[in-house]
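hey so u asked for the seq, here:
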Amino acid sequence: MIAATDPARVQRWVIRDRKPLKQWSKGRATLVGDAAHPTSPYAGYGAGMATEDGYFIGRRLAGVDLSDYAAVRQALDAFETPRKPHTARQSQHAYALGKVFHHAPRALQPIRDAILDRTPLMQKVVGDSTPSSILTQLGEIDRAEARFITLLGRGGTHDTAS
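ran it, structure tokens below
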């Protein structure tokens, strides 16, 4: 199919990486997903983190009077503060995987492959750190759910400080 395609019709988009933003929110607006923390496709994290953002922002804004500027600002800050380290780490991990697996110079690829095939390097770099990262995010979900249940028990008054 590629050979049959007119070269003038082939387009190439270079994947760009961007450093994490210092602030996702301004006023009553916030960024989520790739707008806040774009992630190269090399680890498949982008859609998952966008979904997580939707969950966490929903829980933080639950019960907030959206006409109360200070309450919305507090909720947005409470949403993004714990998300930033996680999303930055995942984006950096995807960037590193892209460099190792897709952008290694051709001369170094056999050496890379020999190391990855014959040593526990990938297990140490990825396998040993992934479970703790997952458990940390599950802990964040448990805390968000506990806050949400407390909110429901108070009849919808939202305390974004907890």
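The radius of gyration is 21 Å. Residues 120 and 127 are 9 Å apart (CA to CA).
lmk if thats what u needed
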